[in-house]
Structures are given as structure tokens and as C-alpha cells.
Design brief:
A hairpin with an 8-residue loop joins strand 3 and strand 4. About 5% of the residues lie in helices and about 35% in strands. The strands form 8 sheets. Strands 11, 12, 13, 14, 15, 16, 17 and 18 form an 8-stranded antiparallel β-sheet that branches. The chain is mainly β. It has 3 domains: about 375 residues, YVTN repeat-like/Quinoprotein amine dehydrogenase (Methylamine Dehydrogenase, Chain H, 7 Propeller); about 80 residues; about 40 residues, no CATH class. The protein contains 3 helices and 36 strands. The two termini are about 35 Å apart.
């Protein structure tokens, strides 16, 4: 498939959406094998487990997983961890004559192993471009019972191989046993930072590393509050809960520690992560919160929380930064949790992994009815009882329907499940693939908030790496559109150090549904798109202005005249 040309903002607040109409944006139609048809469909929603059907084999792996397009070919690949003494696995997404797409094991020779000779439990993994070179790197939550040194950081070399740079990067920490991790740009400087949570009551239970942009990190625990007591931080997620433009960290602490949110006050005179919780309604998480996902399930513009637990799950509706506990869904002993729009109707549904050691239970799915209530439709997963733990959302065949990959770590049924969304009569869809410039905005735009308006409904997504149970789901923002055949408006809050209004770009439609649309961040005055604003851009703008084409309509008023030169000059003076 030919890679589509990105939409590039040429003026703050506007873009030239005509580019999305080009034929090479259209996705190739994938012909599904007859054996892939689901047996049960509920409300037109159905999934089929390609692994259980013997069509895709990822093996009996037991750790966390990350979705990453490691070779940037436009198809989502998978990295799956395993326990000590076993090998973590990298799977490449390739064409298959029988099934449309499949995954093949390309671990051999990739360098993705315990290169220092220490065998670690690969509990989980996250993906992010730590050096802004355009390739996704990996951080693996490995730990041992002897040296308790956490984490292995692998740099993607861009040729299908990875290099263990943990020591040189400064993220190998003795004395911590990590349980969760995430990549985030907490200070919006365009470089990914690393946050790690573990077990214990010492300051090592929370570790914050500031990314230097060259593959190295600097410890920044001085920004963190001290732990309240002994805790196990199974999961966490970064999300802009109060809509102030920077990401906050929601912690899942087991072991009796109070519920906590680290409110990001980096823009204050004294930067810090301020601990809050009960005062904003975030409290009473239960005895052992396991997984977390943030999503705007009620389409009111802010992000709500779904938390799995050792008992009944906990759900918080975000009402402008204050949380109200709600009970739209009930379950027992959940782990991985996802917000997915399974039927592309424009409302986020909820998927949860089944129990670990508690049963009977299985992978569960609830359909969002759009009125604050959910319908239990787990039969649509077409699965049998299995002890599942980790899960990610991914559109692995690029057909616009959200698929799920989950890890079943113990018998019976110990394998990695690949649930293909085979739903019929689904709504229309669009997927946005954001790209930062690698200077002001990190390459994968982690932390960006995307809002689209279609058919009179506005939906919101945030790009995160490290959610569910410390996994990286598909970094592309997928939206179901219901009956709408086009998107009227796209608004993106890019994660960079500008006023919120200045870094919010609006791309006007109509933009046709049924496609994956790349959108690249660019400085308005960077006309030649070389990443810098200088005299060359004046020359480039003069050329397009002389041609009189639409590209010279800098203020997007429908005319090419002196006002456009004035608008360009103002943007040039602002810089980038």
C-alpha cells in the first residue's frame, strides 16, 4: 500500500483538506477467509479469534504486549513479553494469501533479548520514539529476584534490529521492582520522558526520567511527591483530566495506599506533580486495582476512567475535572481494559480481560448504548473460558474495525488470542495517524488530544503509550462515525510548549470517511517544511504567492492578496 501524503498545517487553525481526496488514501479491500466468519453476532458485533482457529499462531507467551509499527510500513506489528528464561517476541505484520494479513516471528537476529545475560520477567512493554529519529523504540519491564534492576531499553536501529542501551541511557535502576511504565512528554518539550511505578514504600517505588532527546534520560524524582506507604502500582495512565493542556498521571495503587492523581503543574513557578485524589472524587478504588483506560465514553469532551479490580470494577465519569463514581458495568477480577468502538457507531464500548485465578470468567465486552448505559454482549467475542491478563486495541488489518489482542498466560488455553473484528453492518470510520516534527512535538504525538466532529457529534481521543496493564495500544486515533460519510472538523491539541490556543490546529472538512489519514505537525511559517523558519520560507512563500494557487491563501479567506503576505509575515515573526 502506498503511504499517503500527510495533511500539513499551513496556518494555525487551518489546513488544506483537499489532499485527503487523493486516490492513494483509499485502503485496499481485504478478503477474509471463509473460516474467519464469527459464529455469534450480537447487535451486529462479532469477533473471531484467529489464533484459536489455528490461522495465526503467536505462541504461549505470558507477558505484556505493545503495538508498534517498527518498520513504518503502515501496518501494526506486535511485541509480546515472556517470563524469565524465555524469549520476548517480535511479530511482523505481513500479507497472507489465506487470511489477508498475518503475523510472523522475526525475533531471531533482532536483538530483542536479555543482551546483558540477565534473565528477567518481561512483565510488560511500552513503545515510543525516544530519540525522535522516526522509529519506535521499546522499554521492557524486566526484573529479577537477585539484583532487582528494572527495565531494558531497546533503541530501534531502523533496519529491523534493536540495541540494548539501558545502561548508557541511564534508566537501569537497582533497588526497584517495576510493575508499570509509560512514555509521556510531561513538560511538553518535544522529547519523550519515562515514568516507572513499582512495589514498595521508598522513593524508588515511583521513578520519573526526563528525556534528553538523544536516547538518554535524567532522573527527575524531585518533581514527585513521596509515597504514602507500601504500595503496588500495577498500572497507571497519563491523560489531561482537567483540560489545562498538560498530561496528568492517574495511579492505581494496591496495598492500602490512598487513591492518587499526580496533577501536572509543570507550568507553575515551581514545577511539580501535585498529589490529589479524594478532593476531586478519585477515591475508593478497591483492594487491588489492576488495569486502567481513559476514554470519553459519554462524548462530553473530557476523559472518563475504567478501572479493573480484584472485585467489581471501578468507573469514574469525568465532569470537568471532578470525578463521579458510576456503575455502568459490573465484572469480577479484571486485568486489561480497553475503550474501543467495536461497531463504529461513535460511542466507545468497553472490553476487559477475564479473571486470573478466579472464575468462571472470560474476555468480556459491553456495548455503549449512548445514554450512559452499557449492554453486556460478551457472547460476541466468540471465546471460551481462558485466564487472560494483558490486552491491546489494534486495527491490524487496516479495515477500520477495532481488533483486540490479549494474552492468556496460564493453562487452560495458554496462548495469545488475536480477535479480529468481523462485525457486520458497522458504521463508517476514520483513523488519524499523527506525526510530530521531532523538535517541538515528539514524533508520534504522544499526549496529543484529537477531537473530530461528524454527523453533529464530537468525539475525543488522547494518544498514550502505557495503559490497560502497561501496554501500548495502536497509537493511531480510531473513530467510528455512525451514518456520517465524512468528517466536518478535526481539532488537534498538539503536545508542545505554546499556549493551548496557539498549539490547537483545526482542519476543516469535509474529509471522506473510510481512510487512514496522516496529519503532520508543522510550523505555519515553515512553508518549505524543512523544520525551520528562516529566509528560505520567505522565498518559498513568494513562489507560491506568485503562482496564485490555493497554497498562497495563507489566511484561508478564499482569496490570494496582500492580506496573505501580512498573515505570513506575522507567523514568521512568531517563529516556531
Amino acid at each position: 500500500m502506498h503511504k499517503p501524503e500527510p495533511i500539513v498545517a499551513t496556518h494555525i487553525g487551518q489546513a488544506h483538506p483537499r489532499r485527503v481526496d487523493r486516490a492513494h488514501f483509499l485502503l485496499a479491500t481485504l478478503v477474509l477467509a471463509t473460516g474467519a466468519r464469527a459464529q455469534v453476532s450480537i447487535d451486529h458485533i462479532s469477533f473471531v479469534d484467529r489464533a484459536a482457529a489455528g490461522q495465526i499462531t503467536l505462541g504461549s507467551l505470558r507477558g505484556g504486549l505493545a503495538v508498534l509499527d517498527y518498520d513504518r510500513d503502515g501496518w501494526a506489528d506486535l511485541f509480546v513479553c515472556d517470563t524469565a528464561g524465555a524469549t520476548n517476541r517480535l511479530f511482523h505484520n505481513i500479507p497472507s494469501a489465506a487470511t489477508g494479513r498475518t503475523f510472523v516471528d522475526v525475533t531471531q537476529g533482532s536483538g530483542l533479548n536479555d543482551a546483558d545475560g540477565v534473565q528477567r520477567n518481561g512483565g510488560a512493554s511500552i513503545a515510543g520514539d525516544i530519540d525522535n529519529d522516526g522509529d519506535l523504540d521499546l522499554f521492557v519491564l524486566g526484573y529479577t529476584t537477585t539484583d532487582s534492576s528494572h527495565g531494558v531499553l531497546y533503541r530501534n536501529n531502523g533496519d529491523g534490529t534493536f540495541t540494548n542501551i539501558s545502561l548508557a541511557a541511564g534508566v537501569r535502576h537497582v533497588g526497584a521492582r517495576p510493575m508499570s511504565a509509560s512514555f509521556v512528554d510531561y513538560d511538553l518539550d518535544g522529547k519523550l520522558d519515562l515514568f516507572v511505578g513499582g512495589i514498595g514504600s521508598t522513593p524508588d517505588a515511583l521513578l520519573l526520567y526526563h528525556g534528553n532527546g538523544d536516547g538518554t534520560f535524567t532522573p527527575m524524582n524531585s518533581l514527585l511527591p513521596p509515597p504514602l506507604g507500601s504500595t503496588t502500582l500495577y498500572s497507571h495512565v497519563w491523560c489531561d483530566l482537567d483540560r489545562d493542556g498538560d498530561p496528568d498521571c492517574i495511579l492505581l495503587s494496591a496495598g492500602g495506599q490512598s487513591a492518587r492523581i499526580l496533577r501536572n503543574d509543570f507550568d507553575q513557578a515551581t514545577p511539580a506533580m501535585a498529589p490529589i485524589g479524594p478532593e476531586v472524587g478519585y477515591a475508593a478504588l478497591g483492594p487491588a486495582p489492576m488495569g486502567i483506560a481513559a476514554g470519553d465514553y459519554d462524548n462530553d469532551g473530557d476523559f472518563d476512567l475504567a478501572i479493573t479490580n480484584a472485585q467489581v470494577g471501578t468507573y469514574f465519569r469525568n465532569d470537568g475535572g471532578f470525578f463521579t463514581k458510576v456503575t455502568p458495568i459490573s465484572t469480577i477480577f479484571g486485568w486489561g481494559v480497553l475503550w474501543i468502538d467495536a461497531d463504529n457507531d461513535g460511542w466507545l464500548d468497553n472490553y476487559q480481560c477475564g479473571s486470573l485465578g478466579q472464575g468462571p470468567n472470560f474476555d468480556r465486552l459491553w456495548r455503549n448504548l449512548g445514554d450512559g448505559t452499557f449492554k453486556y454482549i460478551s457472547g460476541a467475542m466468540n471465546s471460551t473460558f481462558s485466564v487472560s491478563q494483558h490486552a491491546v486495541r489494534v486495527d491490524w488489518n487496516n479495515d477500520g474495525r477495532a481488533d483486540v489482542v490479549s494474552v492468556n498466560p496460564v493453562a487452560p488455553g495458554q496462548y495469545v488470542a488475536v480477535y479480529e473484528n468481523a462485525s457486520d453492518a458497522t458504521g463508517h470510520w476514520i483513523t488519524l495517524d499523527l506525526r510530530g516534527d521531532g523538535r517541538l512535538v515528539n514524533r508520534d504525538a504522544i499526549g496529543a488530544i484529537v477531537r473530530i466532529t461528524a454527523g453533529g457529534v464530537t468525539q475525543s481521543r488522547q494518544i498514550v503509550s502505557g495503559s490497560s496493564t502497561t501496554s501500548t495500544e495502536d497509537l493511531r486515533a480510531h473513530f467510528g462515525l455512525g451514518s456520517a460519510t465524512s468528517v466536518d472538523r478535526i481539532e488537534i491539541e498538539w503536545p508542545t510548549r505554546k499556549d493551548l490556543s496557539a498549539r490547537t490546529r483545526v482542519y476543516q472538512g469535509p474529509i471522506a470517511a473510510g481512510q487512514i489519514v496522516p496529519i503532520a505537525f508543522a510550523c505555519p511559517a515553515d512553508v518549505n517544511s524543512d523544520g525551520f523558519v528562516n529566509g528560505d520560507d520567505y522565498d518559498s512563500f513568494a513562489d507560491v504567492f506568485e503562482s496564485g494557487g490555493i497554497a498562497a491563501d495563507f489566511n484561508t479567506d478564499g482569496f490570494v492578496n496582500g492580506d496573505d503576505y501580512d498573515a505570513f509575515a506575522a507567523a514568521f515573526d512568531e517563529g516556531c
